[in-house]
Design brief:
The chain is built from three helices and seven strands, in the order βαββααββββ. By secondary structure, the chain is of the alpha+beta class. The N and C termini lie far apart (55 Å).
Length: 201
């Protein structure tokens, strides 16, 4: 699976950009993956319905397993069942796992955020874009946590989110697959760094 190289601007959702910008500030501050416990952006609780927390376990070699620590309410509705405590690959099932799991594995391999847009039809045939932002975290030895921010939007206006990801036998089609590997920094606007010289002319 190929992923294009991109900067943070590829993420269009304002709320997802806020989450990513906080991750970028932590990343730039230490020049390494941020620790999960340090990730405390403002209004994180407001996004809880669209967030999924994943624990990554490695059993040696290239074998990785992903477990859903907690899932937002919208994900449970879109997939038709709750995922908390389940193996992500098993939860995805045979139709979705081949499409979704390579994105999570690439996030671990590259140790960088991933952004994808998939398109799928709802129960009534309306096209829906499923925007996925993955942000990796580490306690010092590779990626051990991932936060996924999941957004759904349709150019046709309203859509049915119930069982969206399992509404038909056709898997989602990829519109965009990107690794965010450029411009990995973010500064708050309007701030003056300590030690900066200010000149009045």
């Amino acid at each position: 699976m190929d992923f294009e190289s991109a900067g943070p601007a590829i993420v269009k959702s304002i709320k997802q950009r806020e989450l990513l910008n906080f991750w970028l500030r932590l990343y730039a501050r230490h020049e390494r993956l941020p620790a999960f416990d340090d990730y405390r952006p403002e209004r994180l609780a407001d996004e809880s319905e669209d967030l999924v927390y994943i624990v990554v376990e490695s059993s040696g070699g290239d074998t990785l397993r992903f477990f859903i620590e907690s899932d937002g309410g919208r994900m449970s509705i879109a997939f038709g069942t709750a995922g908390k405590g389940r193996d992500l690959e098993e939860y995805m099932g045979v139709k979705l796992a081949p499409v979704v799991m390579p994105i999570y594995r690439e996030c671990v391999r590259r140790q960088l955020p991933m952004f994808t847009i998939s398109q799928i039809n709802d129960l009534y045939g309306r096209k829906v874009d499923y925007e996925r932002l993955l942000m990796p975290f580490s306690d010092g030895d590779g990626v051990n946590r991932i936060i996924a921010s999941l957004k759904t939007i349709s150019d046709e206006g309203g859509f049915e989110i119930r069982n969206l990801m399992r509404a038909n036998d056709v898997p989602p089609s990829d519109k965009l697959r990107a690794v965010i590997d450029r411009d990995l920094f973010h500064k708050l606007p309007g701030r003056i760094a300590p030690g900066d010289t200010i000149e009045f002319v």
